[in-house]
UniProtKB/TrEMBL annotation, chain A:
Pfam families: BPD_transp_2. GO terms for molecular function: transmembrane transporter activity. Its main location: membrane. The chain crosses the membrane at residues 20-45, 65-86, 121-139, 146-169, 189-218, 248-269, 275-295, 302-320, 332-351. Keywords: Cell membrane, Membrane, Transmembrane, Transmembrane helix. GO terms for cellular component: plasma membrane. It comes from Planotetraspora mira. The keyword Electron transport does not apply. It is found in: Cell membrane. The keyword Chloroplast does not apply. InterPro entries: ABC_transp_permease. This is ABC transporter permease. It is a multi-pass membrane protein.
UniProtKB/TrEMBL annotation, chain B:
Residues 504-545 are annotated as: Disordered. This is ABC transporter. Residues 12-247, 272-514 form the ABC transporter domain. It holds the Pfam family ABC_tran. Residues 507-532 have a biased composition (Low complexity). CDD domains: ABC_Carb_Monos_I, ABC_Carb_Monos_II. It comes from the Bacteria. One of its GO terms (molecular function) is ATP binding. Keywords: ATP-binding, Nucleotide-binding, Repeat, Transport.
From TrEMBL, chain D:
The keyword Transmembrane applies. It is found in: Cell membrane. CDD domains: TM_PBP1_transp_TpRbsC_like. GO terms for molecular function: transmembrane transporter activity. It holds the Pfam family BPD_transp_2. GO terms for cellular component: plasma membrane. Keywords: Cell membrane, Membrane, Transmembrane, Transmembrane helix. The keyword Cell inner membrane does not apply. It comes from Planotetraspora mira. This is ABC transporter permease.
Length: 369, 545, 324, 303
């Protein structure tokens, strides 16, 4: 099975950890992407001097910032869903299913069980996270007990999970007399408290930022983080060091799934305050997030920034469509190009090696030679 | 055979080779001539530049300056392909076999005989057999490389080079992972090979091998040649001085633990006790049968035995690392209590597999140095694992154990083999556990470091720690161990006191001669049991004949 | 005719008129959305207004696009489909000076500055069913639809009901494309159609959006017949498509936009057979020039016209699956 | 009923052929040691270019040729960046899949002049085997009659690839390179060149997959019409590893499960659950295989 190779892939990636602040290649990458994108625009007759301001406006100005934040929150959550298991070398490609079932669970609870204020928001979120954790968690024993790599099982479980959520909102949880498969509007008490006027910036933002900070802290500064990184770097080494790697695999897989489930809950409890079939998966948070995490080349601290970059591209891209008349297909072209180019420059091994060589200068141990 | 240039010229000659890695000068103006038909030893400390020099000779790396002559003619070696074309062949220390390909495929790949576009494995098989006959290297062309015991794998590696008509064969630390029997047969093969005019370059850390197997020796130190010797006219001491700039102290038995009136720890209770231990593998085949022994504080107990005699299972069970899924009976007691499954924290353990188990290549030296101890309160910061404390501990260990490293923040893969090994020892010995289990502590490690490591083990013994030492170096066992247990087919078949354990007695016990008289020759034994270990008896097919 | 004429639409119409159309999804293969875009575009040209299309990708981007449209202060903001129900419940109330138009649905609480246009596509589907019931030899009908969602049942249930009204023994089987791109998977749609044909179905209604052509191909290869939806799809597979369940989105849209531009906003305009907002090609006068197979069966056409009249007259009531 | 079973087989073959072709490409990459997750985008690109070339030349076979060539060219992005520059192949693939989606939709309007779905009576699809005179052969006639020649060709290609990998010089070298690139390099094999070859060949196969999808299964192009088939191919490669016949079995298992799900829909199974069926069945098969293989597994230990 190709597990062997995939494993080394993960190891290589989880390996590329390093201290902060080596952002030069990232900057270079973005610059390179800009150049190529500009060329594409010129070729198809879009004026870059209209398009770029429109992109920025579409992402951060004119009241669009709230929508960018609205997309940043789930993307960051999904990034963690992928990044946490990745630290132990496991690929979670099943974010969609974990998110969708988490969302359905949150919606079902909010609709069916009357809850006091406060609890009406918190409990569905907790249940959403737990649901996501369970959906993702099954992949760990499937790997450790049956030898099926998580990259396969997460992908295989995802589609049925999405289908199940779709079935649930189509039948048992459906809003009657409406065209789409969607749940009824959730009760007011279950609406995420908004920050600001629009309703799109909710307490989801501080929540996810806090959790991200928590993850970065755990990863860098705690025993658990150390054990997770060691497992990703060399599973047998970790086992040798007394790390219970199988349990850790369950924990990190479920931890990732919890974030995906939480994202589902946050989306459903946010506007339009219901589970709309397909609405969670349509924006493609899962794969945007994966690209963002991989761009961060295994540096947790960089993840929020790469997620922000991807979100700005995505949301700003729509602004570009609206204001600069860039056709929507071209937006996709540009996003694809940016990902390819940024990846080419930022994750290139050749470049990384050169960087590593430069870092190798200090001479501490020579004294005892 | 192609012969360019005049026949008096060396088969291969490296002239003024310099190679830098950033600030490190790995090779500094090295000259080295290899004569036709000789075995030329290359020795030196860890990091002296041996592997780098060999990789230049084999076209894997290009020198910053200097060049290579073949039969007196300057050749360009920009890739292994070109080196192969010039009759060079290399056996790397870490074998480079394709695990899922057959032996025949492994040997011919890149130079396949074909018939109408199809790889002619029959022809390949015939050629492999012929080579086997000429050089005494027998392997089954149809078996899968990934399932072969190490000794056989190495023969495949050599066959790979010979098949390509290599006239200069480079071997980088070929015996580091071989048992003494396997090593002896390797040298027989090399002797045979040189008889056809092929030259051999042998990189090794084992002086005994240098003295018995080579014709001439070149010593490297810090990237320079510090000595050239004709083997017959030199001594181990001379070589060591060239290597490390001083001679080794006299070999000494470790001192008795302090404060032990009669000089033996015999009266103390066992720190580690193995009692009637039997282990079955998943197929229900016994890997250990009724093994019992004990190790007292301040005692070093050695484990000898050919590979696959149960050492792996024994040590994995003692340390708690044996993966679940196999049945055991009997027990392992640690000061009277059973060991914990998963990993027993009160036993320090230096594994044989430095890359696969003992270190995580991509993690920093500092992070590698705390593994296993990472839960101790001493490393706790205000909340969580204190990075400063981790670094601090690493610096202390680097200093105390004289580990040569650029920075404790660098990945451990940047350390030379010997220094990585010292790092592992430093980590485990510094934990102050009552019991230490050590496997192959000096494998691939230079003589200076060997001496140091032996010193460390003796110190541990003197400090009252109980040491279980598994090694395939009989001299190491004899020098260090108070008692030596010999394992054969999952049983302890002999127990010898350190001073009564001669190579002969050990060797005889290792082949099961004492347990089952009339066993076959050591050679056959080594292989069949090693084979059994790696592929399980169910699908053990003949890999040798 | 709502408050704030002097600031909003009127001000805009004084200078230049403009229309912003927002779709719930990328237009892509969706013939319904394509027609909606075409209608708005042509109306804009007709009344001399500028036209902009905002394609949304998900509920959040719908809201964002509506916000952006509100900032642009056009003559009218058009939203297509029920996906706008939530946003158009709140936003028009916050911007009373702005005119909104929702096509194909209407929120329960309708603001006065929101105009709604909706269709009784089930009436047209019923007519298609009548044709299918009359033309099927086996009496076995099928529908290949994109997804099993309530809205899509508006094309399925009345279709079978129409067939049953003329052939009590007619049976109907719906199959759904599903998968990861249900609205644009012609290969899967074709395969579903073949499955139906394998079971003896000889008339299939294609409600699979971008997959419809796959259904037509399957029908053509097996000598079965098909129905298209939304637009005239007969030319795509001449002779194999009997007729189409048509929704004159463009016509209804044009009328509504013109009304709004003229200051007549608000209310719900329902387009059914009576209003000529939905229909089948068989009702067209220039049917002979179309490539629809039904043209060869004058008796069927006559029956369809009669049923149409009965529906318009209220003699026949077509059940709306969404009303149940 | 016999006929019913034969049409079932036929529908499985039709549905599976594009997946098989793409998976075969993925397999080549996997054998060479490159993880190719861009099959979805490449198949879509292949479908689009095949239709465009068919549209422009008026010949289905030129369409196929054009699709194959253009997709091989497209896959050069992956080959250059991931093999030469060793960039992360997964991120590159995420970008390439997105790029293909946008680029096909954009160029469709430029080249074919429409958005959404392009179909025209003038667009030439691949001939059927029946049309080529094979309809009277028993079994083959009923099962394959309505299929394009690429359907049997795909299965022949799998067998040929299996043979090629096993028996030929280049096949052996490719296998070696994937297993242990350093070892291959130290034997003088050109690791990069073989990997480039594998990735480009995968592109060509995805082009063929796209051509079969758009000119064989149907005769049209529709935005996003690869509809997840490339992902199924990726999963099949993950399951089958480097073994062509296992990859083929994975594709067929999936295809049969999917066709069964279709049929169960007719029997009242909700569409959403029918959608899940192939994934659930594949997963169960894997678990059973895993449970059975657990005892036999030997650790793959490299020298
Ligand atoms: N790729 C590399 N990058 C940086 N430094 C290197 C590299 N390869 C070798 N070195 C350094 O060059 C020096 C010589 O290394 P080399 O591997 O040749 O030593 P060696 O004599 O083979 O050691 P050992 O006995 O441990 O095998 C060491 O200091 C090593 O750290
Ligand atoms: N990227 C690198 N950076 C720094 N040093 C390196 C690097 N790669 C290799 N080296 C050095 O070169 C050596 C590699 O040579 P070789 O393959 O002979 O391993 P080795 O030193 O013999 O290790 P071992 O004996 O443990 O297998 C390493 O030990 C290390 O010192
Ligand atoms: Mg070396
Ligand atoms: Mg070494």
């Amino acid at each position: 099975m190709s597990a062997v190779r995939l494993g080394s892939l993960a190891r290589g990636r989880a390996a590329a950890l390093g201290p902060l602040g080596r952002s030069a290649p990232a900057v270079l990458a973005v610059a390179g992407a800009l150049v190529v994108t500009t060329l594409v625009m010129l070729v198809v007759g879009v004026d870059p001097s209209d398009a770029y301001p429109a992109l920025i406006r579409g992402a951060v100005a004119d009241g669009n910032l709230e929508y960018t934040i609205g997309a940043f929150v789930p993307t960051l959550g999904m990034a963690l869903a992928f990044a946490i298991p990745l630290r132990t070398g496991e690929f979670n490609l099943g974010g969609d299913g974990q998110m969708a079932l988490g969302g359905v669970a949150a919606a079902a609870l909010a609709l069916r069980v009357p809850l006091p204020p406060g609890v009406a928001v918190a409990l569905p979120l907790v249940v959403a996270a737990l649901t996501g954790a369970v959906v993702a968690g099954i992949s760990a024993p499937l790997h450790t007990r049956f030898g099926i790599p998580a990259i396969v099982t997460t992908l295989l479980v995802s589609t049925p999970a999405v289908a199940l959520s779709s079935y649930l909102v189509r039948f048992p949880l459906a809003e009657p007399r409406t065209g789409i498969a969607e749940t009824p509007l959730l009760p007011d008490a279950a609406h995420l408290p908004a920050i600001g006027a629009s309703g799109y910036v909710t307490i989801g933002l501080p929540l996810i930022l806090l959790l991200t900070a928590g993850w970065i802290y755990v990863d860098r500064r705690t025993v658990a983080g150390y054990e997770i990184r060691a497992t990703g770097a060399n599973r047998e080494f970790a086992r040798y060091g007394g790390v219970r790697v199988d349990r850790l695999a369950v924990v990190t897989m479920a931890g990732g799934g919890a974030f995906a489930g939480l994202v589902g809950g946050l989306i459903v409890l946010g506007p339009p305050f219901r589970f709309v079939d397909g609405a969670l998966t349509a924006p493609g948070y899962t794969f945007t997030a994966i690209a963002a995490v991989l761009l961060a080349t295994g540096r947790p601290i960089a993840v929020p920034f790469t997620v922000a970059l991807m979100t700005i591209l995505q949301v700003g891209g729509e602004g570009m469509e609206r204001d600069a008349g860039v056709p929507s297909q071209l937006t996709q072209v540009i996003q694809g190009l940016v990902i390819v180019i940024v990846a080419a420059l930022a994750t290139t091994r050749v470049l990384r090696e050169r960087r590593a060589r430069r870092a190798q200068e200090i001479d501490v141990g020579e004294a005892n030679a | 055979m192609p012969t360019g240039g005049d026949s008096e010229a060396p088969a291969a000659e490296l002239v003024g080779i310099t190679k830098r890695f950033g600030p490190v000068v790995a090779n500094d103006g090295i000259d080295l001539a290899i004569r036709r038909g000789e075995i030329h030893g290359v020795v030196g400390e860890n990091g002296a530049g041996k592997s780098t020099l060999m990789s230049i000779l084999y076209g894997l790396r290009r020198p910053d300056s200097g060049h290579v002559l073949r039969n007196g003619t300057r050749v360009r070696l920009r890739s292994p392909a070109e080196a192969i074309g010039h009759g060079l062949g290399m056996v790397h220390q870490r074998f480079r076999l394709f695990p899922d390909l057959t032996v025949a495929e492994n040997i011919v790949i890149g130079a396949e005989p074909t018939r109408r576009g199809v790889v002619d494995l029959a022809a390949a098989g015939r050629e492999i057999e012929r080579l086997g006959e000429v050089f005494g290297l027998y392997v089954d062309p149809a078996s899968r490389a990934g399932r072969l015991p190490v000794g056989v794998r190495q023969r495949v590696e050599i066959l790979k080079a010979l098949y390509r008509e290599a006239e200069v064969l480079i071997l980088d630390e070929p015996t580091a992972v071989l048992t003494p029997g396997e090593a002896a047969r390797l040298f027989d093969v090399l002797k045979t090979v040189t008889r056809t005019g092929t030259s051999v370059v042998l990189v090794t850390h084992k002086l005994s091998e240098v003295l018995t197997a080579t014709d001439r020796v070149t010593v490297l130190r810090r990237g320079r040649v510090t000595g050239r010797f004709v083997t017959a006219e030199t001594t181990a001491d001379e070589l060591v001085i060239a290597m490390i700039g001083r001679s080794l102290g006299p070999p000494r038995r470790p001192a008795a633990p302090d404060g032990e009136p009669d000089g033996t720890p015999a009266g103390r209770p066992y720190a580690l006790e193995v009692d009637g231990l039997t282990v079955l593998d998943r197929d229900g085949v016994p890997r250990l049968s009724d093994v019992s022994f004990g190790v007292r504080p301040g005692e070093i107990v050695g484990i000898a035995g050919v590979a696959g005699s149960g050492q792996r299972e024994l040590i994995d069970t003692v340390t708690g690392l044996r993966p679940p899924g196999s049945a055991t009976s009997g027990g392992v007691l640690l000061s009277g209590r059973p060991v914990r499954r998963g990993r027993e924290p009160a036993i320090a353990y230096v594994p044989e597999d430095r890359h696969g188990r003992a270190t995580a290549a991509t993690m920093s030296l500092a992070e590698n140095l705390v593994m296993g101890d990472h839960r101790t309160p001493a490393l706790r910061g205000r909340a969580g694992l204190s990075a400063a404390a981790v670094r601090e501990r690493a610096r202390t260990l680097v200093e105390r154990f004289a580990i040569r490293a650029a920075s404790v923040g660098d990945p451990i893969s940047a350390l030379s083999g010997g220094n990585a090994q010292k790092a592992v020892l430093a980590r485990e010995l510094s934990r102050g556990t009552p019991v230490i289990v050590v496997e192959e502590p000096t494998q691939g490690v230079d003589v200076g470091a060997q001496e140091q490591i032996h010193g460390l083990l003796s110190e541990a013994r003197a400090a009252g720690q109980a040491v279980l030492l598994q090694s395939s170096e009989l001299s190491e066992l004899r020098a260090l161990a108070d008692r030596i247990l010999v394992m054969f087919e999952g049983r302890v078949v002999a127990e010898l006191a350190g001073d009564e354990a001669t190579e002969e007695r050990l060797g005889a016990a290792m082949t099961g001669a004492t347990a089952t008289p009339g066993q076959a020759a050591p050679a056959a034994e080594t292989e069949s049991s090693a084979t059994a270990r790696e592929q399980g008896p169910a699908d053990a097919k003949g890999t040798t004949r | 005719a709502c408050g704030g004429d002097s600031t909003g639409p009127a001000a805009a119409s004084a200078s230049t008129k403009s229309i912003i159309l927002i779709t719930p999804n990328p237009v892509g293969t969706d013939s319904f959305l394509q027609l909606g875009v075409k209608g708005a575009q042509e109306t804009a040209k007709e009344i001399g207004a500028s036209f902009k299309l905002y394609e949304s990708k998900d509920p959040t981007s719908i809201a964002q696009n509506v916000d952006a449209a509100v900032r642009a202060k056009p003559t009218v903001i058009v939203g297509i489909s029920f996906s706008f129900d939530d946003v158009f419940t709140t936003v028009p109330k916050q911007h009373p000076g702005q005119s909104f138009l929702e096509i194909d649905s209407c929120p329960k609480a309708q603001a006065p500055n929101l105009t709604c246009v909706s269709f009784k596509e089930h009436e047209a589907a019923y007519l298609a069913g009548v044709e299918a019931g009359l033309l099927s030899k086996s009496g076995k009908l099928g529908v290949v639809a994109a997804l099993d969602s309530p809205f899509i049942h508006r094309w399925i249930d009345p279709f079978f009901a129409g067939a049953a009204s003329v052939n009590p023994k007619a049976t109907g089987t719906p199959l759904f494309v599903g998968g990861s791109n249900p609205f644009s998977d012609p290969a899967r749609a074709k395969s579903q159609a073949q499955t139906l044909i394998g079971r003896g179905v000889d008339v299939i209604e294609a409600a699979a959006s971008g997959g419809n052509q796959g259904v037509f191909e399957a029908a053509a290869a097996a000598g079965a017949k098909a129905f298209g939806v939304d637009v005239d799809q007969c030319p795509q597979s001449p002779g194999n498509v009997i007729d189409n369940v048509i929704k004159h989105v463009d016509v209804a849209e044009a009328a509504a936009i013109k009304d709004i531009a003229a200051g007549k906003a608000g209310g719900v305009k329902v387009y059914g057979l009576a209003e000529d907002g939905v229909g089948v090609n068989a009702l067209d006068t220039d049917l002979t020039s179309s490539k629809c197979a039904v043209a060869a069966s004058p008796d069927v056409i006559a029956k369809v016209k009669q049923v149409r009249d009965d529906i318009v007259a209220g003699k026949i009531t077509v059940a709306d699956p969404l009303a149940g | 009923m016999n006929i019913l079973e034969l049409t079932f087989v036929a529908s499985v073959l039709t549905a599976t052929t594009p997946v098989v072709l793409a998976a075969l490409g993925g397999l080549l990459c996997s054998v060479s040691g490159v993880f190719n997750m861009a099959l979805e985008g490449q198949m879509l690109w292949g479908a689009f270019t095949a239709v465009s070339f068919s549209h422009l030349t008026g010949s289905a076979w030129w369409g196929v040729a054009g699709g194959v060539a253009a997709t091989a060219l497209y896959s050069a992005v992956l080959s250059v960046l991931a093999v030469t520059f060793r960039a992360d192949p997964v991120v590159i693939a995420v970008g390439m899949n997105l790029l293909a989606l946008g680029l096909t939709a954009f160029l469709m309007r430029q080249i074919l002049g429409v958005g959404g779905t392009y179909t025209s009576p003038d667009l030439h699809g691949l001939p059927t085997l029946a049309g080529m005179g094979l309809d009277h052969v028993p079994v083959i006639g009923p099962v394959l009659g309505s299929q394009s020649p690429l359907v049997p060709a795909a299965f022949v290609l799998v067998a040929a690839t299996a043979w090629w990998l096993r028996r030929t010089r280049s096949g052996l070298r490719l296998r070696g390179i994937g297993q242990h690139p350093e070892a291959a390099e130290s034997l003088g094999l050109k690791v990069g060149a073989y990997r480039h070859g594998a990735v480009l060949a995968a592109g060509a196969l995805c082009g063929l997959a796209g051509a079969q999808l758009a000119l064989g299964n149907v005769t049209l192009f529709s935005e996003g019409m690869s509809a997840g088939r490339g992902w199924v191919a990726v999963v099949a490669v993950m399951l089958g590893g480097v073994r062509p016949l296992r990859v083929l079995s994975a594709c067929l298992l999936f295809g049969v499960a999917e066709a069964l799900g279709f049929r169960l829909q007719g029997a009242g199974l909700p569409q959403q659950l029918a959608d899940a069926a192939p994934y659930v069945i594949t997963l169960l098969a894997l678990i059973l295989a895993g449970a059975a293989g657990r005892r036999r597994r030997t650790p793959l230990e490299t020298a």
